Amino acid sequence: KVDYDVCSNYGNWLYSAGIGNDPRDNRKFNMIKQGLDYDGDGDYVRLWVPELQGIKGADIHTPWALNSAALSQAGVTLGETYPQPVVTAPEWSRHVTQRPQGRSPHPRRGPARTPVQRKGRGIDFYFSRKKDV
């Protein structure tokens, strides 16, 4: 059995790109927030993007926001060993500027924020009948 529905898959990609049909005004998929919520330590990114393996913790989700010393220590050169971002959405800024380490030019404010891990919110959560997890 193949778990694939062309219409659902296409609709989900559109939604993720921020151009799908959504009844809420100005709703956009925030990749940085999703990365912090579901891959707080960056292990998934590190698995599939070996160029960023030297970046520790959640900073891996926003390498373009690291200062030059942190990038150098990680062996990353933006534009050479890893591309510059094509676009940075304004919605990302509150997640980028509040990261715990190595950020420049915006200093962190307030206590350190540990990304919330959504236990039980994997794909099985959305397809189970029991939602009181």
TrEMBL record:
BP-aspect Gene Ontology terms: photoreactive repair
Keywords attached to this entry: FAD, Flavoprotein
Biased composition (Basic residues): 105-120
Domain Cryptochrome/DNA photolyase FAD-binding, first and last residues per copy: 2-98
A Pfam family assignment: FAD_binding_7
Residues holding FAD: 3-5
An annotated Gene Ontology molecular function: damaged DNA binding
Cofactor (UniProt): FAD
UniProt remark on cofactor binding: Binds 1 FAD per subunit.
Region annotation Disordered: where it falls in the sequence: 88-133
Highest taxon in the source lineage: Eukaryota
Family label: Belongs to the DNA photolyase class-1 family.
Protein name: CRYD protein
